[in-house]
Amino acid sequence: MVSDPIYGYVYFNREVEEQVVNSILLQRLRYIMQLQTAHLVYPGAVHTRFQHSLGVMHLTGLVAEDLTGKLVSIHGVDVLEGYSPETLVEAARLAGLLHDVGHAAFGHSFEYSVLWKKNVLGELSNHEKIGLKLLELLLEDRLLEAEERYGLTGLTSMVKKLLGERREGSPLVDAYRWIIRDGLYPTDIMDFLRRDSYYAGTSEYGYISYERLYRNTYPFIEKGVFKAVLDRTGIGEFKQYMVAKASMYEHVYYHSVCRAFDKILDTLLEKLDEEYGLADRVLALARGEVEGFLELTDVYMYSVLLGKALRDSTEVGRLARMMLVERKPLWRRVGGEYVLNGYRGPRFIGEILRLIFDREWRSKVASVLVEELAGRLSSIGVAEDDLWVDVLDISPVPKSLLYPDWGSGVPEIVLYTGKVSGRQVVPGPEVNLLEGELPLAVIFRAYVKREKYRVDMEPVVSRVVGEVLEALLGIDMGEYRRSIEEAYKSVRGIDYSRFKLTM
C-alpha cells in the first residue's frame, strides 16, 4: 500500500507486481522527473516518473476491472478468448506500470534532442520502443516464471502486446490497448493531467473526473471490431477532458519560460551527447548492453551539469549556469502569442494539420517569421541570430491517433457515442472529432535574446507575426470580424432591453 495524493492509496500485489516495482527498471524512474524543466517555473513540479507509473498502474487496474466485467456481461465469457479475468487485469496493470520505463534523462527532451536529431530508427526510436526492449532484456524471464507459478497463462505475451506496436489482432487485445494507449482518453493521460496539475499548483487546468469517463464507457464488438462507446451522459466530461489537456499544454507544459529553458536543454543535450555518448548508450541496447542507458537519469545528468556550471568556462558551462544557477534563460518572449485554433473552421484545420505533420513547412514558416522580424527590428540592432520563433502544436487526443498511418489512409478520430440499456449497447451518432469537435491548435511565439529586449518591441512583434502568418498561410482573420459585424447589422432596430440580464 502506497500513499498517493491523487488516489489516496495505490496498492500492488506481492506475487507479481512487487518484484517489478522493485526492479531497476522501475526504481530508476524515481530519479527522472515527470516534467523535465517545469520545476524551474513551478517549484512544486518535482514529482517523478515513478509516481506517475504507480498511478497509471492503479487507474489502469480500475478501468480494466470495470471493462472486464462489462465484456463478460455484454458479450459473454467466450469474448475473453480463454484468458482468465485475473490474467487480463494483471496484464493491463503491468502494462500501465511499465509504460514509461524506456525514458532517459529529461524524458521527451531526450527523445527530441538525441534520438530524433541523431535519426535513431527501428526498435529504439522512442521511449515506448526502448521500454519494450528493456522488458525483453531484464524482466521477461521473471514474468514468465510468475505466470507459471500463479496460473496466469498468457500474461507475459499479453503485456508485450499491450506495450508494443499495434498489429492486426483480436478485439480483446484492442480493448485492453484502448485502456492505456489507443483510446481517446487513456489512463496514461488521465493520470498525468491530474498529477501534473496537482504538483504544479495548477489544478484549475488539469482536473478531470476520470471515474465518470470510464464508468460511462462500454465495450461494443461487431464483426470482430472493438469500439469503446461513451454513454451520452459522459460526453460533457469528455469535452472537459479535451479542454483540460489543451489547457495544461498551453499554460504548463508549453509555458513560455519552460520553453526557453527547453531551448537551452536542447543545446546542452546535443553537446553532452558528443562528450558522454548519449545516443550510443541507447544503441547499445540492441547488443544487450543495458548499464549505460540505465544510468541516464535526471539525477546523473544534473550532477554532470552542476559540475559544468561550477567549473567549466565553455559554452556548456555557461548554459548550465544560466539554467541551474542564474535561472535566466538566454531567450525572452516578446509580443503576444498568435494562435491558430481548430474552432475557426475547415480552412484553419487544414493549416493546423499541415503545420503538425510537415516539419519542413513548419521550419520554413518559423524562418520566414524570423527573417521578417529581423528586417523590422534591424534599426534597433536586432539581427536574425537574436530571434527565435517557437511553433507549438496542441492536440487534445493522443498523437498516436492523430498522425497518419499510410497503411490505413487518413485517420478518423471518432468518438463513438450511444446508450446502454441492461446488457445491450445501442450505438448512437459517431462524432469524427477532426470535423469540428477537436480543439486542435498551433501557437506561434517570438523570442529575442535577453540583452536585446526592449519593451517597445512588443506591439511591433505582435503586429508583424500576425501580418506575416496571415499572408503566408492565406488566412483572413478579418473574416471573423466582418461576420460578427454583419450579424449585429442584421438585427439593428430590434429592442433587446428586456433580455439584457446578468445570466
Automatic annotation (TrEMBL):
Record's keyword annotation contains Cell membrane: no
SMART domains: HDc (SM00471)
Keywords, comma-separated and alphabetical: Hydrolase
Domain HD/PDEase: 45-202
Matching Gene3D superfamilies: Hypothetical protein af1432 (1.10.3210.10)
GO annotation terms (biological process): dGTP catabolic process
Entries under InterPro entries matching the protein: dGTPase-like, HD/PDEase_dom, HD_domain
One function term, GO molecular function aspect: dGTPase activity
Protein name: Metal dependent phosphohydrolase
Provenance organism: Desulfurococcus mucosus (strain ATCC 35584 / DSM 2162 / JCM 9187 / O7/1)
